[in-house]
Amino acid sequence: MVEAMELLRSNLSRVRIPEPTNRIYKQECCVSFDTPKSEGGLFIDMVTFLAFGKDYVMWNYEKTGNPVYLHIKQTRKAVSEDRPSKKPTLLAIGVEGGFDNNEPQYEEAYNIVILPDYASLPFPSVELPEKVRLAVDCILMDEGAERKERVAAWVADKKQVSVHAMNLLQVDNGIVIPPSGWKCAKCEKTENLWLNLTDGLILCGRRNWDGSGGNNHAVEHYNETGYPLAVKLGTITADLEMADVYSYPEDESVLDPLLAQHLAFFGIDFSSLQKTELTTAEKELDQNTNFDWNRIQESGQETEPLFGPGYTGLVNLGNSCYLASTMQVAFTTHAFTSRYYENQGLKKAFEEAPADPTVDLNMQLTKLGHGLLSGKYSVRSSEKQEGIPPRMFKTVIAASHPEFSTMRQQDALEFFLHLLEQVERVNSGNPATDPSRSFKFGIEDRIECPSGKVVYNRRFDYILSLNIPLNEATNKEQLETFQKVKAELKSEGKELTTDEIVRPRVPLEACLAGYSTPEEVLDFYSTALKAKTTATKTTGLTSFPDYLVLHMRKFVMEEGWVPKKLDVYVDVPDIIDISHMRSKGLQPGEELLPECADDGEVESKKLSANEDIVSQLVSMGFNNLHCQKAAINTSNAGVEEAMNWLLSHMDDPDIDAPLIQEAQSAGVSVDQSKVDTLISFGFQEELARKALIAMGGDIEKATDWIFSNPNASGASTVDTSAAASERINELPDGGGRFRLVGFVSHIGTSTQCGHYVAHIHKGGRWVIFNDEKVGASVNPPKDMGYLYFFERLRD
C-alpha cells in the first residue's frame, strides 16, 4: 500500500478536480456497454472524466498516458422476494410516483487505481491526498453526464389554459345534462364520452389503435362545427382542475378556468359528481403498465427468447423504439456490419477518435455494432434479456437534429434518412467504406410535352416511397360484403368484433407499378411550345442499390386535415423483381426540349408550383418556399403528395436554396453564369457544362468532379452525363431481383406516437426485435410493415 501511495503522490499532477462545466461519465464505458455492474467495474479517468471498462482502460492509458483512475464496482444486494410493487401515479420513470420497475438494489465500492500496474488504494481514506479526495467527492456527487444528457422521466407537460376558454361561445339548445345514464348521441357507446362545451352534445372519443375506445364521433363533430372544447364525462369532481378538458384546435389537454360556469350552462352541478372515468393521463399510465409486446405484434403468441451474437436487444430510452427498430435492421445489412464490426475494431475506432470519443459518430456506431453483434451482452442468464442502452449513440446522432434528442416519439423513416445522411457525411473522405452508398440509387423522371419533345430530370434517393392503391385490392368481394354487414349492424346499434373486420389487401406489385405509371404534370412550361401545358411524366431507376428500402405511405390526410392511417394490408412476397423499373434514358429518335427559353423568367416558369397546393400547405404552418418545392417535386399532383414529400425532405441540405437555382439545374439546363465561372477557373466550356450537369448545377461539387476526372471527355450529351454522374458517384448496381431481409412495423394512429417493432430474417427464420426483447417470430406480420428492407440478389 505504501508503494501505491507513493505512485499516487508522484502522479498528482495527473489528477484534476472537476469543474461545474466538466462532463463526468461514470455510468457507462465510452467504447463499450460496460457499467459499474459489469464484472470488472468501471474506471473513470481522473483527468478527462471518461469511463472505461476493464478490458479497455489500458487503451486509454496507452493513448493519453493518464495513470490515475477512480474504480467503481457495484454489487447486487439481496432483496426480499415479497417486496411490494407500487402502482405508478405519474407518467414518469425514475422519479417519485413514477414507474417502479422493481430493479435490484446495488451497493458500491470505490478504489483509486494507478496504471499500468493496477496499484490500488481504498476510498474513502483519510490517508489519500486532499486533492484526490476532493476530486473523487466531486465525481461521486455529480449526477453524471449520461443522466444529464437524457430526460430521465416521461413527465407529461403541465396543462396550459386554453386560448378558447375565456371567450367560449355557448349555444342554448335547451339541453340539460343528467347526472348519469349518458351515451353517445351518434352511437350506443356509454364509455369514453365527451361533452362539447359549446352545444352540449355528448359524443364518444377517439378509436385507439387496438380497436378499443370510441368511434371518433367527438372529433368528427369538431371537424364539422369547429366547436373547440370538450370535457370527458366521469372525470368531473369538486376538484375541477382534475377534469379532463380537451382542446381540438390546440390538440392537447388544457385547463378551463371557467369550467364551473360552462358546466352550469348545461345544468351540471359539479360538486355532486364523483369521479368514475380515467383521465387521459391515467389511461395512458394504464396502457404503459399493461404494455404487452406479444399482443401488439404477434397476437399473444408465445415466442422463444433468443440470445447470442446478433440477438442483442436495445433498451428503450423513452419513446426510442423508432431508433431501436431501425438500427437493428441496419446492423443486419452487410454495409453496416462490415464497416462498423467486421472491419472496424473497437481499439482502432478509439485510436482514431478525437479526445472525447463520446461525441464521435464513427466511434459510437462501432460501439453499437460490437454491442449488438458480438453477443457479449446477450447471454442466457435468465428468461429476460436486459439489452444495451444506446444513449451515447442517440446523443451524437441527434446532435444535428434537435427533434431526435427529445423523448418524444419520432418517425422511423425520418430517422433512417437522417442516419444515412450523417453516415455519408462522416465517410465523405473515404466513399469506398461508406455504408450509406449501399442504399443510394438514382431516379430519372422523363417528361414529355405535347410537342413530342422530352426532358430528363435526375436525382438520388435512399428510399422508394410508394402509394398504396386501395382500388387494386384483391379482396374486393369480401370488402363489399363486409361493408353491407357493417351497415346492417350499425342500423341495429350493434358493433363489429375485431375478428369480423375485413381490411383491403393490396399486392406490393400494384404499389410498385403505380410508381412507374405515367402521370400528368399540370402547368408544365414547354420551352418548345413557349407556353404552359400538360405534360406526361414517367419515373424509373437509373441504378439498383445493394439494399432497397420501400416506404409504404400509410398516412394520409382526411378532410379537415386530420391525419389518418390507412387500415390496409400489403401482401409482400419474399422475392421481388423490379427490373421493369429500370430507366432507359434518352432513346434513339427522341428530341430534347430546348435548353434555354427566351429569358430567365420564362425558364423558371417551367417549374412553377400550383398556387392552390402551396396556399393549402402554407395554411397548415409550413414555409412558403418549402411548399413550393414540395409542389414542384411532386409535379403538382396534389396536396397529399406534396405533404408526403415535404415531411420526407424537411432536413434536405438544399431545402432553403432559392427556386431559381433549382430551376437552372432542372433537366439538362445549365446556368451560363456558372459555366462562365468555371471557365474563369481555366476549364474548357464543354467540360464545365458537363460537370455542372453531373453535379446538379453545384459549382463547388462540379469543381471537385473535374479534378476527380481529369480525363473526362469534353463531349456533353444527356446520355454521357448520366453515365458519368453514376460513375462518379460509384453507386452500386446490378440485377433487379431482391430478397426481403427485414421490415419495421408501426402500431398507432400517427408516426409521432405508438410503437415500432422490427422483424429480421436471420439464421433461416424470422426474429422479432421489440426494444430489449428478442425472440423467434411465430407469425411475422409481413403485410403490416411501414419500412421494408430488401437485399439485391447476386446474379
TrEMBL record:
Look up the EC number in the record and give it.
3.4.19.12
Does the UniProt entry include the keyword Mitochondrion?
no
Q: Which domain of life is it from?
A: Eukaryota
Q: Does the keyword Transferase apply?
A: no
Q: Name one GO biological process term.
A: signaling
Any Pfam family the entry gives: zf-UBP_var
Where does the record place the catalytic residues? 321 (nucleophile), 755 (proton acceptor)
Q: What class of enzyme is it?
A: hydrolase
- Cite the binding residues for Zn(2+): 184, 187, 204, 217
Q: Where is the UBA domain?
A: 608-649, 669-709
Catalysed reaction equations from the record:
Thiol-dependent hydrolysis of ester, thioester, amide, peptide and isopeptide bonds formed by the C-terminal Gly of ubiquitin (a 76-residue protein attached to proteins as an intracellular targeting signal)
Domain UBP-type, chain residue ranges per copy: 160-270
One GO term in the molecular function aspect is: cysteine-type deubiquitinase activity
Query: CDD domains annotated for this entry?
Result: Peptidase_C19B
Q: Which residues form the USP domain?
A: 312-793
Keywords, alphabetical: Hydrolase, Metal-binding, Protease, Repeat, Thiol protease, Ubl conjugation pathway, Zinc, Zinc-finger
| Annotated function | Recognizes and hydrolyzes the peptide bond at the C-terminal Gly of ubiquitin. Involved in the processing of poly-ubiquitin precursors as well as that of ubiquitinated proteins.
What family does the Swiss-Prot or TrEMBL record give for this protein?
Belongs to the peptidase C19 family.
- The protein in question is named Ubiquitin carboxyl-terminal hydrolase
